[in-house]
């Protein structure tokens, strides 16, 4: 599962759980159970507008323990820090947004345009069924990372030669970086 698919899945599950929990609490707070003559279970947290969300027994159960409030505050702090770290990871781009061409310093090329060009040229190779390219590194030292899915009958040797002389050579020529490092990952799936 890719990073974006995992993020979407986690966000969907957390969002659905929060939405359903909030809807059930709102339904109880608006006295929806009494209006519709429904009988929720006895352990249900909020069944009428007069009832608190957390019972007095639950709120005061651990108050006499000296470790309780520091543990609650530490757990909530870890949750907030974890969420902020995840958010920072989503906002951070893994590679340079633009590259300045050494031959023409006033010309900038978008990193995504380079990735798309290499992907388009790579997918045209005969043994490749899927290609994904990412431009990483810094603007001064970019690097290409390409993942290829090959047909089961594909020979990796000639494919690598075609990749080096085709898409990689074109990227190196376009960016005027003959030493542009490249990492390639090959997978074979029927």
Question: What tags apply to this protein structure?
Answer:
3-stranded mixed β-sheet, 49% helix, alpha+beta, 190 residues, 5 strands
β-sheet strand percentage: 15-25%
Mind telling me the C-alpha Rg?
A: 28 Å
Structural class: alpha+beta
Termini separation comes to 18 Å
The count of strands amounts to 5
Give me the side-by-side strand order of the main sheet.
3-4-5
Uncertain runs are none
Q: How can the largest sheet be summarized?
A: 3 strands, mixed
Number of helices: 6
Please provide the ordered H/E string of secondary-structure elements.
HHHHEEHEEHE
- Average pLDDT: 85
What percentage of residues falls in helices of 4 or more residues?
A: 40-55%
User: What gross morphology would you assign?
Assistant: elongated
Structural features, described:
The chain has 190 residues and is of the alpha+beta class. It is 49% helix and 19% strand. It has helices at residues 3-29, 32-35, 56-60, 68-91, 111-123, 156-175, and strands at 98-101, 104-110, 128-137, 142-150, 182-188. The protein has a three-stranded mixed sheet. A hairpin with a 2-residue loop joins strand 1 and strand 2 (104-110). Helix 5 (111-123) runs antiparallel to helix 6. The longest helix has 27 residues, at 3-29. It is elongated, with a radius of gyration of 28 Å.
């Amino acid at each position: 599962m890719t990073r974006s698919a995992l993020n979407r899945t986690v966000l969907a599950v957390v969002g659905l759980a929060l939405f359903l929990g909030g809807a059930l609490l709102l339904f109880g707070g608006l006295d929806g159970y009494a209006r519709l003559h429904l009988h929720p279970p006895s352990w249900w947290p909020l069944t009428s507008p007069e009832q608190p969300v957390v019972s007095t027994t639950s709120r005061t159960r651990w108050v006499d323990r000296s470790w309780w409030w520091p543990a609650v505050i530490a757990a909530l702090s870890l949750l907030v820090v974890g969420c902020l770290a995840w958010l920072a990871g989503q906002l951070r781009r893994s590679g340079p947004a633009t590259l300045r061409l050494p031959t023409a310093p006033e010309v900038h090329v978008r990193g995504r345009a380079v990735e798309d060009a290499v992907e388009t040229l790579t997918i045209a190779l005969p043994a490749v069924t899927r290609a994904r390219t990412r431009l990483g590194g810094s603007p001064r030292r970019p690097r290409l990372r390409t993942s290829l899915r090959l047909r089961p009958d594909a020979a990796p040797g000639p494919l690598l030669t075609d990749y080096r002389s085709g898409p990689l050579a074109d990227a190196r020529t376009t960016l005027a970086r003959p030493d542009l490092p490249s990492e390639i990952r090959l997978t074979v799936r029927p």
